[in-house]
Design brief:
This protein has about 220 residues and is an alpha+beta fold. It is built from six helices and nine strands.
């Protein structure tokens, strides 16, 4: 595959399921050992695999991966996610999720993981969505100009590349999307935001978007116009 990211001792390789079929099939077989709902293991051609590695003087060591369709009709930016058991609770789960959205930003489109999510996947995504949106709302609430403190769900979607549905569901779950006098509004009270942030867990391994060297996979003429 091609190394598309390196920051310190963390690297990400992009592997094309069509070009490296046997390797990607074996990766899926490995994932099936740990994911009960894993069913893709043979038809890997339509997928790209993003393999996260720790690198040292002995080489690269796989810690996890995620896959995504080369062209998703539903704008899914992630099909399967796995962190190997010995590398769990190190922040790689949130790194993988954040990396999938970093690629969506390069593609200039909103993305969402393939549904339904596993129980562990749902917990990880809900924590990531909540933390990202709460930090964004806290930053917006501290702006000096009152007009700059106006924000919409569409505006949040544009800045985060989350889908509007994922944003609405997250705000509903946090109980900060309220309805009054015929319209919805977001309660960005700093105390409420800090309260929820304390329950979102840490950031995980950070993604430095400036160190991603990647261009979208061309399966249509959208990028040729």
């Amino acid at each position: 595959g091609d190394e598309i990211y390196r920051n310190g001792n963390v690297s990400v390789f992009e592997v094309d399921g069509e070009k490296s079929k046997i390797w990607c099939q074996n990766l899926c077989y490995l994932a099936k050992l740990f994911l009960d709902h894993k069913y893709l293991y043979y038809d890997v051609d339509p997928f790209l695999f993003y393999v996260i590695c720790e690198c040292d003087e002995q080489g690269f060591h796989v810690v996890g991966y995620f896959s995504k369709e080369k062209e998703s009709m539903n704008n899914y930016n992630l099909a399967c996610i796995l962190t190997l058991p010995q590398h769990q609770r190190k922040g790689y789960g949130k790194f993988i999720i954040a990396f999938s959205y970093a690629l969506s930003k390069i593609e200039q489109k909103q993305g969402s993981p393939e549904k339904p999510l596993s129980d562990l996947g749902r917990v990880s995504y809900e924590s990531f969505w909540a933390r990202t949106l709460l930090l964004k709302l806290r930053e917006i609430s501290m702006r000096v100009n009152p007009e700059d403190r106006m924000v919409s769900i569409d505006g949040l979607a544009e800045e985060t590349c989350f889908t509007t549905l994922d944003i609405k569901n997250t705000l509903d779950r946090l109980q900060i999307l309220l309805y009054s006098q015929g319209q919805f509004y977001i309660n960005a009270n700093p105390k409420i935001i800090d309260y929820h942030l304390q329950r979102c867990g840490g950031q995980g391994v950070p993604v430095d978007s400036s160190k991603i060297h990647w261009t979208p996979h061309l399966t249509s003429d959208r990028w040729l116009r």
